[in-house]
Design brief:
Elements lengths: L6 E7 L6 E2 L4 E6 L4 E5 L4 E6 L6 E3 L3 E6 L5 E6 L4 H16 L16 H10 L3 H6 L11 H10 L44 H16 L2 E9 L1 H18 L6 H14 L5 E4 L2 E4 L5 E3 L1 E2 L5 E2 L2 E2 L7 H16 L13 E4 L19 E5 L3 E9 L2 E17 L5 H16 L8
Parallel strand pairs: 12-16, 16-17
Antiparallel strand pairs: 1-3, 1-6, 2-5, 3-4, 5-7, 7-8, 9-19, 10-11, 12-15, 13-14, 17-19, 18-19
Helix pairs in contact: 2-4, 7-8, 7-9
């Protein structure tokens, strides 16, 4: 599954017991928290045993099937492979990320700490705060883990937890205040309406978005950019580029190159937060939000983006984008991002206020490029001309990024784009 993935869910067995399997042939399909992929066999033989069933959660390093090779040897070859050291490191990172998240207001009456994942599961399954407090946690300092809450939900029907009522003394200044119960907005369903359950990925995305808003103080900065030189350069070189490299030349790699440069100038955006500590990332790994054919969203990552030239960036963008649409991304392709870029202009949007991809502290939305009248300054005076312009919308985490840093970063991106050399070689 890759060293940066800790666990996965088996979504489908492609081979049954007794089936013949060739080396490198897909045996089953798995799903991590961000991507689905197939697990191939490392040897040829006969599948003699499936150690896990569909929808089972498998930890990295566990054997999930046994194959008998032609020599009659029983080989445990189909594994979610990764070293124990990698698993420990991933687990440590996940725990640290969970510990750094502030408790949402819905759980403010509780004296216990619950991670966003636990709270999301509790909300989805209708588990109250009082019930959560009665669960015996197996995590650090008795904290409730994902497995604890899932086990509780599984057994909830057979054993109910009756929590004692909590008495909270209101502050003197608020004695006269009348408490208002939180109510969910009623959903009206008519006879002709269709009710469709969210698929697995949409449920995960919904949980991530809510958790991100509850975790970070989102704030935005916007700036308009003149990209006329970029449009002219691309029109002049796109056919030459495609003929020479066998790759289409879009605007995305040009924008990604400018973002990578700006992150080197403003490393305060290439960070994540761990409780009261800031983790400064050494590598610049750019996430590239991509829409899937089913309408869902995924964010593959361009690793060490600052080390790529424009040709390398174009190949990376096209490769990840193509495999995302074809559903062929590997789990590692979506791991390790330090900053994200999303192109809302693809859908004609001029602005966007994107939600942070946790635990990152910044995300940039690229608006649509439009022809607009603009004032052009020349030594002979000002005049009105038609220019190609777009807006950059920068969302950042105000817990650790102030306006000077967030605004300065997006301004630097704009400066790189406006200074693009129209005579640049490819």
């Amino acid at each position: 599954m890759g060293e940066s993935v800790a666990e996965a869910t088996i979504t489908n067995w492609l081979k049954e017991v007794g089936d013949k399997i060739e080396a490198d042939e897909a045996v089953l399909e798995i799903a991590t928290d961000k991507v689905d992929s197939e697990v191939p066999s490392e040897v040829s033989g006969i599948l003699v045993e499936q150690l896990f069933g569909k929808d089972d959660l498998v930890q990295v390093g566990q054997t999930i099937a046994i194959i008998e090779t032609e020599g009659g040897e029983m080989v445990s070859v189909v594994k979610a492979a990764a070293t124990s050291e990698a698993v420990a490191e991933v687990t440590k990172t996940v725990d640290a990320a969970k510990d750094s998240v502030a408790t949402p207001a819905d759980f403010s009456d509780s004296d216990k700490f619950f991670s966003p994942l636990v709270k999301n599961i509790a909300s989805a399954e209708g588990v109250s705060v009082d019930e959560l407090e009665q669960i015996n946690g197996t995590g650090k300092d008795g904290r409730v883990t994902k497995n604890d809450i899932l086990e509780y939900v599984k057994n909830k029907g057979s054993q109910a937890v009756v929590a004692p009522a909590k008495t909270v003394e209101a502050p003197k200044a608020a004695q006269a205040a009348v408490p208002v119960a939180k109510k969910e907005a009623p959903v009206s369903v008519n006879g002709g309406d269709e009710i469709v359950e969210m698929d697995r990925m949409r449920k995960l995305i919904a949980g991530y978005m809510v958790a991100s808003v509850q975790t970070s103080a989102h704030v935005q900065s916007f700036i308009e950019v003149d990209v006329t030189n970029i449009v002219k350069w691309r029109e002049k070189n796109k056919n030459i580029f495609e003929k020479r490299e066998g790759e289409k030349l879009t605007y995305t790699p040009i924008f990604m190159e400018a973002v990578a440069k700006a992150l080197k100038d403003f490393p305060g955006l290439n960070i994540s937060v761990d409780g009261d500590y800031i983790i400064k990332k050494k590598n610049i790994n750019l996430g590239m939000a991509a829409s899937l054919p089913n309408g869902n969203l995924i964010v593959p990552v361009i690793k060490n983006a600052d080390q790529l030239n424009l040709v390398g960036m174009a190949k990376a963008v096209n490769d990840l984008g193509g495999r995302a649409k074809a559903g062929k991304l590997k789990p590692d392709d979506t791991q390790g991002g330090t900053y994200t870029v999303t192109n809302v202009g693809t859908f004609g949007s001029v602005f966007g206020t994107p939600i942070l991809n946790q635990p990152q502290v910044g995300i940039l939305a690229l608006g649509a490029i439009r022809k607009v009248p603009a004032v052009i300054e020349t030594p002979e005076g000002d005049f009105i001309g038609i220019r190609q312009k777009m807006f950059l919308s920068h969302s950042y985490d105000h817990r650790v990024v102030d306006g000077a840093l967030g605004g300065g970063f997006v301004k630097r991106v704009a400066e790189y784009l406006e200074a693009f050399d129209v005579n640049r070689d490819i």
